[in-house]
Amino acid sequence: MPPKPQFTREDGLYHSFCGLVSVGWLYQKIKDSFFLILGTHTCAHLLQNTLGVMIFAHPRFAVSLLEEADLSSSQPKIAHQIDEICAEYKPSVIFLLSSCTPEVMKVEFEGLAESLSRPDLPVLFVPASGLDYTFSQSEDSVLQALIPFCPIAEPDDKRVVFLGSVNDAIADDFSLEAARLGIPVAGFLPATRFNELPPIGPGTILAPLQPYLSKTATQLRNEREATVLSTLFPFGPDGTRAFWEDLAREFDMNVDLSEREAAAWERIKPHTDILKGKKVFFATDILMELPLARFLRSCGCEVLECSTPYINRRFHARELAQLEGVRLIEQANFDRQLQSITEEQPDLVVSNIITTNPLIGRGVVAKWGTEFAFMPIHGWSGVNTLVQMFTKALKRHAKLDQQGLDPIWTTGLMPSMPGQEDVIPLHQ
Ligand code: SF4
């Protein structure tokens, strides 16, 4: 038996981005859907600020604002809002997303969703509150809600289902690559339309494209007896090669993509030259940290720490094996991380939306991790975008550096965080 991958759980209070934000990419992916969030003004402000640019695109999501009276009843009255949504958007499915306040007030979401469903229009409950979910994990909840609507495939229907939402260009790229290798494809979960969900059964090979979908993968393994491909996630030349070679093996084909991988590395050499030898510290919350850290290691970086909100030993097994020797932390404590950053002086910190700007303000080269969830970085066609996301941050800082920004380890100042004093001297 291979040794169990080692990681530490700090149970820290990490500053995480709310689960509702996944609506921003999911409503665009599932084109005949509507996302209705049962929330408060706080949730509305969050969506307005983070997804505000999309308002002009007539978005298929909305917040049903709860007032005190709604919260005192176990089921808020929102049937008229469902009528309005149907009349204006004609969706095939409505996702009803929970948020913190109604969850704390014990609103009975499942019963509410059931009572709002119609024969031709399912209303599906999606747990997504910021209390329990980081923003990428809510996609896992949405996909779980879709499982009962995936047709059951015949046992001899052996085809791949790609698991995870990627933009249409990347999805086309995966379909074309599968066709090129002779791998039969049943579809994507999620599909672009609700009535095009792929059939899933004992012959299905589930190929996860996103590292934050362990609940959906586990449920499909248990309930539909599907096989979950154990491989690297398709990020970077190394991950993409392993992904396709392992997938082909499931279909009794031996393919050698070493030349393809070498060509992809050659294409991004100007970037890997910049990254080689750089010390990188992951302090973000996107649940993509493991494959991103593995990719940077393959680029020649030294990964000082890779922390992530959640590690699933089985779903992430192959990535964990590649990160042997790296300090792996689940639910990191941010105060401890600040100390480590100060002592270890990384060249690049991948941090979250709340902590990036304060770090940059103190001269640390920090990259906003959330961006990785929105960018086309998968497969062979995503390699350039992926590597540039890291090198852009380094290049930008090199320019700013000439303007005299000193990092925290030379000024002895820590970034201010919400609820902390403005400036805290180090090593008190
Ligand atoms: Fe804030 Fe919770 Fe609403 Fe998210 S769901 S915006 S964390 S109140």
For this structure, the CATH topology of the largest domain is Rossmann fold
Give the helix level as a range of percent.
25-40%
State the secondary-structure class.
Answer: alpha/beta
Task: Quote the distance from N terminus to C terminus.
Answer: 46 Å
**CATH architecture descriptor of the largest domain:** 3-Layer(aba) Sandwich
* Number of beta strands: 16
The first-level CATH class of the largest domain is given as: Alpha Beta
**Shape by Cα distribution:** globular
Bound molecules: iron/sulfur cluster
**What is the average per-residue confidence, as pLDDT, rounded to a whole number?**
88
User: How many structural domains are formed by the residues?
Assistant: 3
Largest sheet: 6 strands, parallel
Percent of sequence in beta strands: 15-25%
What does this structure look like?
- The protein is α/β, with parallel strands linked by helices.
- The protein has three domains: 115 residues, Rossmann fold, CATH 3.40.50; 91 residues, Rossmann fold; 136 residues, Nitrogenase molybdenum iron protein domain (Rossmann fold).
- The protein contains 18 helices and 16 strands.
- A six-stranded parallel beta sheet has the order 1-12-11-10-13-14, with helices on both faces.
- Strand 13, helix 16 and strand 14 form a beta-alpha-beta unit.
- Helix 10 runs antiparallel to helix 11, helix 10 crosses helix 13 and helix 12 crosses helix 17.
- The termini are far apart.
- The C terminus is likely disordered.
- The structure holds iron/sulfur cluster.
- The site of iron/sulfur cluster has 10 residues, from helix 2.
